[in-house]
Amino acid sequence: MSRGPRTGVDPDRLAALDGLFTAEQRQIAAAVRRLCDAEITPKVPLWFEAGELPDPRGLMRQFGELGLLGMHLSGYGCAGLPATDYGLACRELEACDSGIRSMVSVQGSLAMYAIWRFGSEEQKQQWLPGMATGETIGCFGLTEADHGSDPAGMQTSARRDGQGEQADWVLNGSKMWITNGSIADVAVVWAQTTDSPRDIRGFLVPASTPGFTAGEIAHKLSLRASVTAELVLQDVRLPADAVLPAATGLAGPLSCLTEARYGIAWGAMGSARSSLHAALDYARSREQFGKPIGGFQLTQAKLADMLAEYVKGMLLAVHLGRLKDAGEITTEQVSLGKLNNVREALQIARTARTILGANGISLEYPVIRHAANLESVLTYEGTVEMHTLILGQALTGQNAFR
């Protein structure tokens, strides 16, 4: 009687996940993986260890050449591909490193999406083509040092200076934890207007504007192969047409966050897949007590649990992608994807670390790097608590945020 394969099966093949995608979608994923394998994956452990990204502008141009920047947007040099295709790209980027996926996500799903969704035609023509090629880099300034989960309390202000509709805007304030901030050519900054009626508006701030500075944040122990900055605005004077005309109130920036969270639900599964593969390879080759540790029941139980959560997370991501492509996705459904998939990816990385033992903390393997990165992904663009309350309100009809 056959006991089944002794060499093991790839997790995606075991669950027949490739069958969920078209040949074109598999080609897109393979193209992103080839770029990462050739240009990033061999180097990213060194970047992580050094806490730097040596040539972010060159890397962004490579992503632009592959058509990854704003790939789910249409027009202005963007590829206009389905949301599922974008999700597969996010999975491959984060299988390489969360910081690399964040770089692309902030460019396309936050900065570019804000301009594409809320900008004037002139603003779109001015910024989006260069951002799609990676020649122009954008960032998204919403979070403040004292206002993370509650952006409505933001202190960054925008006041009118002059008469009539052509009056300038003057911005003052600061933003924290801004990916791409210190390399950006343009920042999408959200501010509280001081004139009546007071409201939250979005502004396009060229990095060369007097009074605007961006300093890189050091001493991070997570997302180390990523550019993270603090933005400071001191009497930054902007023309009247710097405001995003179609965004008024918190609905604007929150819709951008929903767009980015969708990509995170896919990206987290990349970290999970990489961690699972590392654990499988190690379990098949590492011998203790006379045989590979993959032959022991406790190790197999860990691997089976990791596989189950990875497959469930992928099925959820695919479901969300199809809902998004059909124009039917809701904010609550995206919160479900972000909450579940990041939480389970982090648990997979932690479990993989235990299978690798002491080697699990070495950057020779990707596991500890994924685990450290996912600690940030778990809380950025909505903490576990915030997404839990979003789902709780949807289920009960009761607002428990305050």
Automatic annotation (TrEMBL):
Necessary cofactors: FAD
Q: Could you name the domain of life of the organism this protein comes from?
A: Bacteria
Biological process, per Gene Ontology: fatty acid beta-oxidation using acyl-CoA dehydrogenase; fatty-acyl-CoA biosynthetic process
Q: Please report the stretch or stretches of sequence annotated as the Acyl-CoA dehydrogenase/oxidase N-terminal domain.
A: 22-135
Q: Which GO terms describe its molecular function?
A: fatty-acyl-CoA binding; flavin adenine dinucleotide binding; glutaryl-CoA dehydrogenase activity
* All copies of domain Acyl-CoA oxidase/dehydrogenase middle, residue ranges: 139-236
What SUPFAM superfamilies is this protein classified in? Acyl-CoA dehydrogenase C-terminal domain-like, Acyl-CoA dehydrogenase NM domain-like
InterPro entries recorded: Acyl-CoA_Oxase/DH_mid-dom (IPR006091), Acyl-CoA_Oxase/DH_mid-dom_sf (IPR046373), AcylCo_DH-like_C (IPR036250), AcylCo_DH/oxidase_C (IPR009075), AcylCoA_DH/ox_N (IPR013786), AcylCoA_DH/ox_N_sf (IPR037069), AcylCoA_DH/oxidase_NM_dom_sf (IPR009100), Glutaryl-CoA_DH_mitochondrial (IPR052033)
**Boundaries of every Acyl-CoA dehydrogenase/oxidase C-terminal domain copy:** 249-395
Q: Which UniProt keywords apply?
A: FAD, Flavoprotein, Oxidoreductase, Transit peptide
UniProt family annotation: Belongs to the acyl-CoA dehydrogenase family.
Record protein name field: Acyl-CoA dehydrogenase
Origin species, per record, is Nakamurella aerolata
